[in-house]
Every structure is written in C-alpha cells, then in structure tokens.
C-alpha cells in the first residue's frame, strides 16, 4: 500500500544495509543486550496478563459452561451439575443441527464466492489509471466501515416484501415480488446478499494491493507478445496473485464463520430456522429465550471455535509457507 | 492522445456507475430517513424524498442522544485501553525481542479467530459472577478484545521498520528501554497509532454482540442497541430508524474522510501481516 509503513520499512532496510557496512560488526554491549531482551517482558506483561484474563479465561468458562447444566440461578448460587458431554450429545441430536451446519456452509461458501469474484473484478478495474479512481476506490470502503446493525437494518427495509425498493425494482423489470426475509427459501439468500455487500470492500482493498505488487513489465512483455486482456488476467494476474488470494479467502472464511449480527438482525435465523447458522443458534440458545440454555449454547459455540481454528491453522500454514518462499 | 483521453474518461464513467451501484443502499438509507410516513409504502417508492420530513431526525434528537453519548464514551475508552496495552507490546515484539515473543504473536493470531459470540458467552458468565453486567467499564473491557491483538500486530509490524540507528542513538545517550519507547519510538509511530485508534474506535462503535449480551439491561446502552430496540418496538417508523442509522454512520464516514489512507493501510496490514 502507498502508506508510510512500507516506505519506513524500506528506509529501515537501507539504513540497516548501510549500518552493517559502516560499523564494525562487534556488538557493543552483549550483556546489556541480554538485559534488554528480558526487559522486553516488562512491555509484554500487560498484554500477556490481558490475554489470560480476557481470552483464555472466557474461553475456559465457555468450555466449562458446555460441560455443565447451567441456568441463571446456578450461575449465581453455584451448583451446576456436571453433565459431561451431555450438552454436545443434545446439540448433535437436535433437529436444528443438520440445517444449521448446512446453512453455515452455504452462507460461508456463497458469501466467499461472490465477494471474492466481485472484489477481484473491481480490483482489476480500479487498477487501471483513470481520473477519480482513487476517490471512487475510497468510497467503496464505506459499506465495510458502517456498523453492521446499520447495514443489516437498511437491507431489511430494502428487501421488505411489500414496500421494499428491491421488489419495486424487480417489478419494473416484470419480475413478481419475492418474499425475501419471510419465506424459508429466500431468507438465507437475503442474508448472503447483505454479507456479500459488506465483504466486497475488504476483498477489493486486499486484492488491489496485491495487484500493485505485480511488476508492470510482466504485463508489458505479455502485451508485446500479443496477449489479450483476458489471457493476461488468466496467465499472469491469477497465478501471481495466488498467495494474496489465498490469504484473502482464508481471512474471509474465518470472518464469515463468525458472522452473527447480520443474520440475527435481518431474520433472527428464521423463518423456522431457514437461515440459522451456528453463530445465531448459539446466541439464541444462550440469550434469545426467556429460559436460557447456556450449556447447549456454549457447546454450539465451541463447535464453531473448532471450525474457526481449523481455518485459522490453515491460514497460518499458508502464510508461513509464503514467508519461506 | 485524444482517443486515449476519451478511453480514460469512459473508464471514469464506468467507475462512477459501479460506485453508485455499490453505494445505493447507503443512499437509500439517507433517502428513507427523510421520507414522510405516508410516503413510506408508496408504490413505486419515491427515489428522492420529495416533500421530505425531518421527523425522523427529530426523533433521533429526542430519543437517541444518550445512546450516542454512551457509544462515544465506550469508543474512547476502548481506544485508550487498546493503545495502552498494544503499543508497548508491539515495541517489545519488534525491538526488544524477548524470549517467547514469537509464541505470544502466535497466540495473538489465534485470539483473533475466536468468534465474538463465544467470547460474549464467556464474558457473560464472568460478569454475572462479578456483578459488572450492564456497566460501561465492562463493555469497554469486552470491546477492547476486538482490537488488542490486531493492535499489537500492527504496532509490531510498524515498529520493526523504525531504523535501528534511531533507537541505538537513544541508548547511547543513556536512555533506558522505557525512555526510548516513550520519547523516540512512540513519536515516530504516529501512523500506527492513528490506524489502531481508528479501528479500535470503529469496532467498538459498531459492536452489537457484546452490547446486547453484556449491557442489554443497563441504563447506559450504546447506539447499536438504540437502533435494535427501535426496530423491535417500532417497525413502522422507518424514517426514524434510518435517521438513527444515518447518525450512527457519521463517525465511520468522518473517519474515512479524515483518515482514508490509514483505513486502507489497516485493512492490508491486517490481511498480509509480516
């Protein structure tokens, strides 16, 4: 990106290069350096404690919740009986489990496919030089920066069956109105549409910065050889962009698995669970009822952590491999 | 030359059209916020708010100001806490490289992958026992988990690019690690400070999961809950709902205009960390 981070890093690299040439290689104070290495932990200690208190402990409590029979009363008075894997068994045999899994997969795959493809097309388009391209690209970030509740409620009203602008637009094209949010066969599509809209800017920005790192002479050489635009995209852009694409997709995967706000605000997972994902199911079990089922809610949540961690470990592997190459 | 210029102008036209299409929902939100109640269900909908009303914004002023105030407070608190934790840690990881620092970076990466709903449930259990549910401080603490790992990694990436001569000169002048951090490293890390603050503020401003689970019954609720209650209690007055949405979007828009390049830098650095 054309930000100061890159240029500073460049400066640092240059300075480092010069420094090694100019200075004798002997380190000045080895003992002192050893001291500063440990002094580093004074700067890290707050974050380390913070991670223990505000990540490790909540996750531990969540695992504990999933293994016990918790009610609001047993929270306060204690004495929630140990249930072993009972909550997990309950969740796995619940009629909601199959649909929730399917919806999570469809929601994630659908969102990723569309936001990546559209983001890629836009990145290629904005990579060309034309007046206003910078400003327009900045405007594209707005959907990503808006609070999710704002985007979700705007889409709710746009997709309203009777008075929504989307159905009015379809009507002008001669398409009969669709019950976007209130019919089981469209509710999942509706939340995917909203999520794709929110995800496009992220894909655009990351892929655009990937495009910028491809040296332009590769394209010039291809143009001299008479390659068409599509050939250049297929043979140069896509392969050279593969590392960045992989990261973009994996981060999108991790993010999309977590999506809760959009679905909850637009459909609450309904009608009749037709847009329930693991995230909304977990929330509904834990907080959405008068009688909360914290144990099963936590169990669903932990299944979700498992999925996110698998994606996360793939992400780390991919990134490390890229780092080596 | 003229053909080339024409070609570029044509691309600008396409770009403007694509941007307009993408931003249509934002426009629609603004349009509906000015639409009169009786025009709300017009068929076809009015594309511009003819004979518009400020009714929606009047409702915001009357009902939503306290929510906006809480969101500002929570946002600023989250920024302060995030910077205080993340900047020193980033410095340590980038420059002091203590043993075990690599493992900590790994943990930070993993921490970002835990879904918010799971964190919310864990926090709920803890807060209930501690009796800090429905408190602004509790919400600030929970919201800071959205930005702290990101902040540490951004600071570490940025500060590792600070020339070594700069910090070594400070050491030669007799400054300790703390002094070097405060008087040398922090001042040149302005870009990273802005990027991290920006995202910490935006994420806490937009947070709905923690707000609804940890502050759902409090006297001091953030604007996301303000909108949520509004939709729940009052799904007829869409101009007021959308007016609130417009007002809630103002910080994001202002920050985008003021700090455009930091936003892009943050997105990219968040994706392709090195």
TrEMBL record, chain A:
The keyword Magnesium does not apply. Keywords: Cell membrane, Membrane, Sugar transport, Transmembrane, Transmembrane helix, Transport. GO terms for cellular component: plasma membrane. Gene3D superfamilies: MetI-like. PROSITE patterns: ABC_TM1. Residues 101-315 form the ABC transmembrane type-1 domain. It comes from the Bacteria. GO terms for biological process: transmembrane transport. It is found in: Cell membrane. The chain crosses the membrane at residues 38-57, 100-126, 138-158, 186-208, 240-266, 293-316. Its main location: membrane. CDD domains: TM_PBP2 (cd06261). SUPFAM superfamilies: MetI-like (SSF161098). It is a multi-pass membrane protein. InterPro entries: MetI-like, MetI-like_sf. Residues 14-34 are annotated as: Disordered. It holds the Pfam family BPD_transp_1. PANTHER family: BLR7065 PROTEIN, SPERMIDINE_PUTRESCINE TRANSPORT SYSTEM PERMEASE PROTEIN. Belongs to the binding-protein-dependent transport system permease family. This is Multiple sugar transport system permease protein. It comes from Asanoa ferruginea.
From TrEMBL, chain B:
The keyword Transmembrane applies. Its main location: membrane. The chain crosses the membrane at residues 12-30, 67-94, 106-127, 139-159, 180-205, 238-259. SUPFAM superfamilies: MetI-like. It is a multi-pass membrane protein. Keywords: Cell membrane, Membrane, Sugar transport, Transmembrane, Transmembrane helix, Transport. Pfam families: BPD_transp_1 (PF00528). It comes from Asanoa ferruginea. This is Multiple sugar transport system permease protein. It is found in: Cell membrane. One of its GO terms (cellular component) is plasma membrane. Belongs to the binding-protein-dependent transport system permease family. The keyword Transmembrane helix applies.
